[in-house]
Amino acid sequence: MNNASPLADSKRLPWIDTARGFAIFGIFMVNLLSFHGPYFMYGNGNNFWGIGEPGFWQAIIDIFFQASFYSLFAFLFGFGMQIIYENLLAKNVDAPRKWLVRRLLVLLGFGLIHAFFIWYGDILITYAVIGFLLLLFLNRKNVTLVVWSICILLVPTLLYSSLLFLASSFGDISNLANRAAIENANQHYGAGSWGDILSQNANDWLYSNQVINFIFTTFNILPIFLIGLLFARNKWLHDLQAYRKTLQKWWIGSLILFVLFKAGPYTFGNPLWFSLLQDTIGGFASAIFYAITVAFLYDKLKKIFRLIGYVGKMALSNYILQSIIGVTLFYSIGFGLYGKLTPLQTIAVGLIVYPVQIILSYWWLKKYKRGPLEWLWRSLIYKKKLPNKRIPKDEGVSEQTSNI
């Protein structure tokens, strides 16, 4: 019986680490809205901060970040899943899906710890659970992947958006803020004990992961998983020159949809009924646009992109670290900034924290091959303690190291 083993460094695509690094940055910029206050989840969508005039900064986050970077990460998740599956098949590993299931189960474990003991806004549980559905599509034809992706994305989105549009014709649907929930969150996160915070955190996770919410999340995430899988299977981003025309078509098409669905709503007041279309179709398109753009620009901007790639090589560790930093900065058990920062100040936090993460990631990767959680993830998958410390000949940060 053949055993699975981690993918050799020489086979990795360096732009993937940079794309992951961008995704981690973008996810943090959006997550800061929830770390800062309850308005992003419990508000009516008119003001993510609850204080100050959101205006320009809210539009920037909404157009370029919201739903775009977790979708980019989902694209890379599907892309990576296909590469891992092909690697297992190439090595004639018995029951390759078993290894993928084990990988998802370990990720689910990380997500549960993160969601209930650090921060409710976890995406790892979502990716792991929906990842099990992705396994059903590994051997499907390309046309099947495209058809399922389009149908899953469009049908529920169009139906729900149509209902919201009809509801808006009978009256104002923008006054949906949950005042009681906002007050509870402000009290517990802003002035509560550790126990209060954990209790509020659990309640917020349950609220944001209600069955109907999770169903719509699946309709949002699974299609981009499938497109990532499609790109990896066809090697479109493995050889940019060979598939340049194909990639250019995807790039132009995704850019058009990006502009129409992410920025377009602002030309007619950015109504609430359009928000799901903006996040699903717009987020889907912007993720593909960002991924192809990073791949195209990697060789031209290699020096800058390699810096961002250090964060991407430790994506899981940096994602969890961002949550720890967010809790420390904003909750009452730390610096207590919950609900106190202006939009510009909140964004500044992200712009300060991320360069620090680049430095920490570079420093760590000079000493170790993988990030701490990436190493633990792999060790749990293979049920053995894998070597991680760099030996003298490996000193320096390998451009090819990745967490695929």
Automatic annotation (TrEMBL):
Transmembrane segments: 21-41, 56-79, 100-117, 123-138, 145-167, 211-230, 250-268, 280-298, 319-338, 344-365
Keywords: Membrane, Transmembrane, Transmembrane helix
Keyword Transmembrane: yes
Protein name: DUF418 domain-containing protein
Domain annotation DUF418: ranges: 231-384
